[in-house]
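Section: Multi-chain targets

For targets with more than one molecule, the full set of components is provided together so that the structure can be written out for the assembly as a whole rather than chain by chain. Components appear in the order listed by the source. The example entry contains four components.
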Amino acid sequence: MGITLEQAEKAVQAAKAKSAEINTLMNIAIVDAGANLVAFARMDGAWLGSLDIAQKKARTARYFDAPTGEIGKLTQPGGPLYNIEHSNGGLITFPGGLPITDASGTVIGAIGVSGSTVENDHIVAQAGVDALA
Amino acid sequence: MGITLEQAEKAVQAAKAKSAEINTLMNIAIVDAGANLVAFARMDGAWLGSLDIAQKKARTARYFDAPTGEIGKLTQPGGPLYNIEHSNGGLITFPGGLPITDASGTVIGAIGVSGSTVENDHIVAQAGVDALA
Amino acid sequence: MGITLEQAEKAVQAAKAKSAEINTLMNIAIVDAGANLVAFARMDGAWLGSLDIAQKKARTARYFDAPTGEIGKLTQPGGPLYNIEHSNGGLITFPGGLPITDASGTVIGAIGVSGSTVENDHIVAQAGVDALA
Amino acid sequence: MGITLEQAEKAVQAAKAKSAEINTLMNIAIVDAGANLVAFARMDGAWLGSLDIAQKKARTARYFDAPTGEIGKLTQPGGPLYNIEHSNGGLITFPGGLPITDASGTVIGAIGVSGSTVENDHIVAQAGVDALA
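Its structure, encoded as tokens over all components, is:
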């Protein structure tokens, strides 16, 4: 099913380190190739509401094999995917979710981060992805 | 309740063939006149998130006996059906869902397709409809 | 993600044939290794309520890599898994769901069948499994 | 809200070690005093259906500040809490969920474990609790 727990924990730890480095408090979720949760961490004091958002970002990124922020560009009023967020039990389509690929480019899972600005969420998610590169 | 499984499978196979022809990977769902699922197929490697969207497109098209893309023109901010997507456990109102009618024009079901651009989704859904014409 | 659409459709056709052979009308669902739907068919006149049950049986069988009927033996009042059905958005723990394995014994998906007695549901699910052996 | 991420991760690692020691594959969830998820880990190959059950066990244990198995004794047919599992979006009331207390006896969170027999689930949950004693 793609990503291993060892890889997922490595990504979570890298994301936590980046989060601390930029002085934020994050919820971090990793799903596997089947979009099922593998690992999760909520930093002390991080927003409670981000618990669900981090998981939905990770699932959204895997559901469509794309960064959540890219999907969000298409879901605005008048856009081709307007209100896609109503599907799949709720999607999150702003930045902070990224697919995770193996060396061959196959998607093995995804990371979702929530707890700060979407710019910071994206930076921390990218740190998780980079840890497995 | 309208469409038969034999008809539904014929529409699915036609949609799969069109999808392959235009080099896409689709989720294809057929519902009957009661808006209940009759047949479904997810092509290998198609987006996981489109599994739910294809079914919601088919249901949406039958719920209102209209192409989903036509409904979406009315659900934009300021439009008469703004945020109708919150009803019925989640609707999808961009293209890719089409009603299926019999020779007399009676709606016997609907097809929903998801997995590529909404233009491609619509083309593949139309191929499913045409297979039963 | 395990089972292919080609394999799934083969299992569905075999289940349909067995269902006709024993004079029943079934809903048949196939999920992949990630417990996500791959293929579905509802025979004309089959119970509408079995549409959801067939899918839940398939997911339940994959969730625990076991026949649903075996799980049900443990979920009775006083049993060790009493009321496990409240998890995962609803499980079905009576017969009709079976894991599907490859030649090496790895679970690649599952089949769920609903529409008749649980004995018949199981027989038809087994026919689907056998078609891939 | 009680337990820290550092404590939660310590409990998860202890539970993973005990799980490996007794040759099982577990899903392990930790919630805080607010019954909100703090940390989660799914061991490679652990049942997918246990993902949700581990989290529900942890929440159930915190909701009532009691071991899930003790609650389950009261939820049987004829019992005082019959079918309480219908509340709170689904409870799990068989063993594998335990409250976590601080040195003063105050409940600071809970652990939920799922992936084997309920006896093994309980043993692994206890190992998580003991790691924080």
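The mean pLDDT of chain D is 97.
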